[in-house]
Amino acid sequence: MPPEDEIFKAVCSILHARRREAGADTALITRDSLLAELGIGSLELLSLAFQIENEFGIDIDTADLSVSARVSDLLVIVDSAKNGGCR
């Protein structure tokens, strides 16, 4: 499986778990899904970033994150952080 597919699968798993915990619909998440449409607000975004950092052993610059971003934008951030060095 290509690395970007592994990242997508892991990020989707985190997003689905968060939606289940919130009692929200766990509808299909695609690379084009907007984080805001998935119920990710500004506080949730910081929590999500922390979860992703722990999952991948990376540091994410929260200034790069936005609730108006798409899942694909998040994947680029994770991939870039993974290739730029781990903590």
Shape: globular
DSSP strand tally = 0
Nearest-integer average pLDDT? 84
Q: Write down the Rg.
A: 12 Å
Task: Count every helix, treating DSSP H or I runs of 4 or more residues as helices.
Answer: 3
> Into how many domains do the coordinates divide?
1
Assembly context of the chains: single chain
Q: Identify the CATH class.
A: Mainly Alpha
Distance between the termini: 24 Å
* Low-pLDDT ranges: none
Helix percentage: 55-70%
Largest sheet: none
The CATH architecture can be given as Orthogonal Bundle
Write the topology of this structure.
Elements lengths: L2 H19 L20 H15 L14 H14 L3
Helix pairs in contact: 1-2, 1-3
Short description:
By secondary structure, the chain is an all-alpha fold.
Outline the structure in words.
The protein has 87 residues and is mainly α. It has one domain: Non-ribosomal Peptide Synthetase Peptidyl Carrier Protein, Chain A. Helix content is 55%, strand content 0%. It is built from three helices and no strands. The chain has helices at residues 3-21, 42-56, 71-84. Helix 1 (3-21) crosses helix 3. It is globular, with a radius of gyration of 12 Å. It starts with a helix and ends with a helix. The relative contact order is 0.20. The mean pLDDT is 84.
Keywords:
mainly alpha; Non-ribosomal Peptide Synthetase Peptidyl Carrier Protein, Chain A; 87 residues; globular
